[in-house]
């Protein structure tokens, strides 16, 4: 479907005269569609996840993906996307030469969707999508990490990243920044903004805080 399709559909609706019954049908139909998507596709991955750690699936926009890749420019080696959703960050990372590029996602439906995207683009077997709890993923050998997660999750995840990632690792967060870290670079504006964090700098900053206590 073309990107302009939703705008064209909206223009078409605006151009028509619809009565109260038509409005009701649209409202009910939209609500049922959203509910059906939640029950059938999104909810299964959340059933065993504590409420504060649940992250609703919101696909990254093209601009958001581009900003993430800009912050990763000049980097190489492996890349891990935590909470990879439909897999678009992993695919773009593979296009930019990151190998292996791996996405970790808890929702089985989203993993299937990501694998379909990879197959359609001819990347089957070249990228990996694994169903695993991000809190159990071993990150000790990861060089590049990307995350599009909620602030409530980032505040806890930064402890795991600090403990496991090597000094040379770079972490890129989209939509929301890590609450207690200082970024080395920022790209984009508003909801499309992305933040890059150098792990060595974060560890040195923490050591400095401890020394001053």
UniProtKB/TrEMBL annotation:
Family classification: Belongs to the ANT/ATPSC lysine N-methyltransferase family.
Transmembrane parts of this sequence: 20-42
GO molecular function, one term: protein-lysine N-methyltransferase activity
Entry-linked InterPro entries: FAM173A/B, SAM-dependent_MTases_sf
Lineage: superkingdom: Eukaryota
PANTHER family: ADENINE NUCLEOTIDE TRANSLOCASE LYSINE N-METHYLTRANSFERASE, METHYLTRANSFERASE DOMAIN-CONTAINING PROTEIN
GO cellular component, one term: mitochondrion
Gene Ontology BP, a term: methylation
Protein name: Adenine nucleotide translocase lysine methyltransferase
Keyword Membrane belongs to the record: yes
Keywords annotated in UniProt: Membrane, Methyltransferase, S-adenosyl-L-methionine, Transferase, Transmembrane, Transmembrane helix
Organism name: Oryzias sinensis
């Amino acid at each position: 479907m073309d990107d302009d399709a939703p705008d064209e559909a909206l223009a078409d609706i605006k151009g028509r005269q619809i009565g109260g019954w038509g409005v009701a049908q649209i409202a009910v139909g939209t609500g049922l569609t959203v509910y059906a998507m939640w029950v059938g596709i999104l909810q299964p991955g959340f059933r065993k996840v504590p409420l504060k750690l649940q992250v609703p699936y919101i696909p990254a926009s093209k601009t958001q993906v581009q900003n993430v890749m800009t912050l990763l420019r000049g980097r190489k080696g492996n890349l891990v996307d935590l909470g990879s959703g439909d897999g678009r960050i992993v695919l773009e990372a593979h296009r930019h030469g990151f190998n292996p590029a791996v996405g970790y996602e808890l929702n089985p439906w989203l993993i299937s969707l990501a694998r379909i995207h990879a197959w359609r683009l001819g990347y089957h077997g070249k990228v990996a999508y694994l169903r695993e709890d991000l809190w159990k993923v071993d990150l000790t050998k990861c060089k590049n990490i990307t995350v599009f997660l909620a602030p409530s999750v980032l505040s806890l995840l930064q402890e795991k990243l600090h403990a496991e990632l090597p000094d040379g690792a770079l972490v890129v967060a989209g939509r929301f920044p890590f609450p207690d870290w200082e970024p080395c670079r920022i790209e984009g504006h508003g909801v499309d903004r992305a933040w890059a964090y150098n792990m060595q700098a974060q560890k040195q900053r923490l050591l400095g805080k401890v020394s001053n206590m």
